[in-house]
Amino acid sequence: MAAQQGPTAGEYIVHHLGHLQNKKPESVLDFSVFNLDSLFWGILLGVVGTFFLWRAARQATSGVPGRFQAAVEILVEMVESQAKGIVHSAESRKFVAPLALTVFVWIFLMNAMDLLPVDLIPAIWHGLAPSFGAKDYMRVVPTADLSVTMGLSLAVLLVCLYYNVKIKGLGGWVHELFTAPFGSHPVLWPFNFLMQIIEFVAKTVSHGMRLFGNMYAGELIFMLIALMGGAWSLSATGIGLAIGHIIAGSAWAIFHILIITLQAFVFMMLTLVYVGQAHDAH
Question: Is 111 a catalytic residue?
């Protein structure tokens, strides 16, 4: 009997890029399909992040803070200082600053899932999957899922629309849609409105795509490094691949710590910038 061969490199990557879904999509625009793994890990990490922030607030004291409280206070002060420099309304900052803090912590935790070994949780799920009657697809980095990052950017867009109406009034905002940036002449109204719509769409798409692109690329690199380790053998080439797997994996993981932090910070800052722009009149 011939020995069963493992998947090829292409099959390995394609399989690991698959999602655990509620059903097979009938088309690209089938919006009834949900990526259950992204939803599960995203919600779980949101609950975890909320719990730790709640715990820090509950245990806060006026005396000498512990290391956990000090770390949270530094983070809160950093976000608050950024919010003050961008959103000048103190009333708006009561909501916007906590929102920015939540965005940073939540996205950082979701990004940090990329530091787990590529095959660890999928292997655990593979062992449990027969019990649930499911395939062993399990992606654990929600921000490497475009539907998640675009959902986050759409939420930011809704916040921006809310503040546009709240600060300028519905009539003032509609007036701005048709008179900026080229002027208030009636001939220019269609062009102004088109430019405003393009601006909203471009900001929303780029906001979500930037985070997705960086995390998707990072996840893919970890898979390629994992393939190096999977190709080892008792030969000079195989041992070299195993050593290269350890060195490359360690180096990329260390560098990736900067990436996951930076991407969370960039998404938070863009959220503040877009909300701050909603307060500005043209």
Answer: no
pLDDT tens, residue by residue, 94-145: 999 999 999 999 999 999 999 998 888 888 888 777 666 556 678 999 999 9
Residue 22 known to be catalytic: no
210 flagged as catalytic: yes
Structure pTM? 0.90
Tell me which of 22, 206, 233, 250 is the catalytic residue: 206
DSSP secondary structure letters along the chain: -PPPP---HHHHHHHHT---BSS--SSTT-TT--BHHHHHHHHHHHHHHHHHHHHHHHH--SSS--HHHHHHHHHHHHHHHHHHHH---HHHHHHHHHHHHHHHHHHHHHHHGGGS-TTHHHHHHHHHHHHHT--S-----GGGSHHHHHHHHHHHHHHHHHHHHHHHHHHHHHHHHHHTTT-S-GGGHHHHHHHHHHHHHHHHHHHHHHHHHHHHHHHHHHHHHHHHHHT--SSHHHHHHHHHHHHHHHHHHHHHHHHHHHHHHHHHHHHHHHHHHHH---
